[in-house]
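My current task is to audit a protein record that another person submitted. What it holds is a sequence and that sequence's fold in token form. Thanks in advance; the entry in question is below.
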Amino acid sequence: MATRKPAAAEPVRPAPARNKSSSPLAALPGQQSLAQLVHLVRGEKVLLDADLSMLYGVETGALNRAVKRNVDRFPADFMFQLSAPEWESLRCQIGISSAHGGRRGTPYAFTEQGVAMLSSVLHSQRAVQVNIAIMRTFVQLRRLMDSNRDLARRIDALESRYDEQFSAVFDAIKQLITDDKQRKSKRPIGFL
């Protein structure tokens, strides 16, 4: 019985051009539009297979077949398939209709490391350029999250400092009110 050799890296078939903007030769999207494609699933920032295939200019099925031929390069922390509830939740968040046709199953989600690994699976200049743009977007998002964390820490420090100061002010006001009440209660009633 002859054993079949593992398939050599077959060229990934480009997706048919729907319009000029989805053409593989179209300009790479900016970091702003790439950031809109990044979703938070299971606590990880991920890109969905359909979005990646659009960026790379290949069919989603072709991208997934290339990944399955090299499944050993994509451990669970690089790529995972969404569960049905996760997919439903994400579809509601991003506004994908459930019209007939389209996907038969739930999509694959690629983490930052999984996207980086895709360049070794998809052998095209476009894939390299898209990966560079995506990596820059992930770095920008990480910096943004770090600056937000730093801002939150500063706000917490200010709140605690002002809480102490306001506490002292409120204590002084309470003392003035009680002193005033005591002074008023000691006055004799009537004419002197």
